[in-house]
């Protein structure tokens, strides 16, 4: 547990030195709270949390009538969620705010344990996975991806320390981080994070995606950035995600029309349930809520793309 505590503090960054304001403190506290929850989960291995490893092939994910509440007075976050992400498929989750999209990721990472129903990963009940192996198989690219206190190189190689230089250079180029590297005074060896150069949200997410490229996860959980990206970066990210989708199973919380268009299947969540699922073409004709989401939430990017 102490090793995990240190790891989380390292990951969350702000507790390395002075706390950088309320948001940092909040995420630190959330991490500590999560540790209690994680500690109480069954099946935790004795070997710590360093079990990141490559290979093994893409994993299928199924949710079967999953129920889950965060334990407060509010309505449960999941009230019987059922969907399937086939091996090597790309499934997009969409839905209004509070529908339960992020909760899907939290349950898959086992930050929390679901209350009812069944979640399987790779055909195995999620509760039967040793936690380190499960998390070692998943790359979770958050919207507000954390940066470690260290150099850019250390950040990129964190989950794949043995990756050779050519793979590192390739991941940097494909996520268009080379412009950042050129700009930094010591290139890849420049300290970043709260004790070094401050990076934008888009740069941090691209670092997280480069990390995922280097690691070759069996399941990629991606919470797409909502912030606007310039056309070059957006195209680069789309290419990388599509390439990752060829090697791994991808579950993405989609904020862009271009993403849902590329998804094999879109799952529309509403108030803790799956409202409907299908392809963009099927849903745009067949589902009122999806049509509304596509023309509002997903539309900003659509308008940009249309203008290009
Ligand atoms: P958004 O698009 O706004 O991120 P979402 O679809 O991802 O929303 P969730 O974050 O999964 O929705 O939230 C589902 C429900 O669970 C909401 O009612 C939310 O307030 C609640 N919830 C989410 N995280 C927590 C938490 N850590 N503690 C308590 N309640 C939570």
Automatic annotation (TrEMBL):
Transmembrane regions listed in the UniProt entry: 1-19
Chief location: membrane
Subcellular location: Cell membrane
UniProt entry tagged with the keyword Acetylation: no
Annotated keywords: ATP-binding, Membrane, Nucleotide-binding, Transmembrane, Transmembrane helix
Signal sequence interval, chain numbering: none
GO molecular function, one term: ATP binding
Location of the ABC transporter domain: 61-296
Protein name (Swiss-Prot/TrEMBL): ABC transporter ATP-binding protein
Organism, as annotated: Streptomyces stephensoniae
Stretch of the intact protein here: 314 to 621 of 621
